[in-house]
Specification:
alpha/beta; about 40% helix
Length: about 230
């Protein structure tokens, strides 16, 4: 018996046990299996482990998506986390290859996945507040937002949560060094029902451009002298 002789329900069930690459490989064999690959039932959950995976065509992005995770655990994450003004040419070249990948992907999610319930981002050092603001606006049913080691996230994202995260139940901002204690307290005050977790975030040293730091040091010296 050939696989294409199975009915649609059986084929979808079969595909559900396969990873993204295996599904895509089968879909390339004939039009019938391509249609199965495109069945929204198969794509309520997407997990990615590097920015490169976001550019592949082995998954389907659409209204059926409920749970999205982009977790990058690599030595290159450390390079992404370096302040831009401290990176050397080699480090900038490394970042340039993928710095827009997650942000561009989140725009697609905003446009195609209005029913998203959960988003986890870990090690996404180039994701900024603007894209999370857009996502909170575009996915009003979002219940879980977990951010870990996303160094460009600031209190602006926390403010967006208070404005547009009406359905949010869980918020994690772990190891996000540019989040402040004041921002966390604002979320607790305005969204008391949200389960907030912020491991180390408000205790870490935030980014300061050299010019800002120098001006601050000069101001302190003037106060001491006078």
């Amino acid at each position: 018996m050939h696989i294409t002789q199975l009915n649609r329900e059986c084929l979808v069930h079969l595909f559900s046990f396969l990873d993204k690459n295996s599904r895509k490989s089968l879909a390339q064999t004939c039009h019938q299996l391509l249609e199965v690959f495109q069945d929204p039932f198969l794509w309520p959950v997407l997990n990615f482990h590097s920015p490169v995976e976001l550019k592949k065509d082995n998954f389907l992005l659409g209204p059926a998506l409920r749970y999205l995770s982009i977790c990058w655990h690599s030595s290159r994450v450390k390079v992404c986390n370096i302040e831009d003004w401290m990176k050397n040419t080699f480090q900038k070249d490394i970042c340039r290859k993928h710095e827009n990948a997650v942000n561009d992907f989140l725009i697609q999610v905003c446009n195609r996945c209005p029913n998203l319930l959960s988003l986890t981002l870990s090690g996404c050092g180039h994701v900024t507040d603007d894209y999370l603001l857009l996502l909170l606006k575009s996915c009003p049913s979002l219940k879980i937002l977990k951010l870990e080691n996303c160094v460009r996230i600031t209190d602006r994202t926390l403010e967006a949560v208070t404005l547009y995260g009406g359905s949010l139940q869980t918020l994690h901002v772990d190891f996000c060094r540019n989040v402040t204690q004041a921002g966390l307290e604002t979320v607790q005050e305005k969204c008391p029902l949200v389960m907030l977790k912020a491991e180390r975030s408000a205790d870490m040293i935030p980014d300061n451009e050299p010019g800002e730091k120098l001006m601050l040091e000069r101001a302190v010296r003037k106060l001491v002298l006078h």
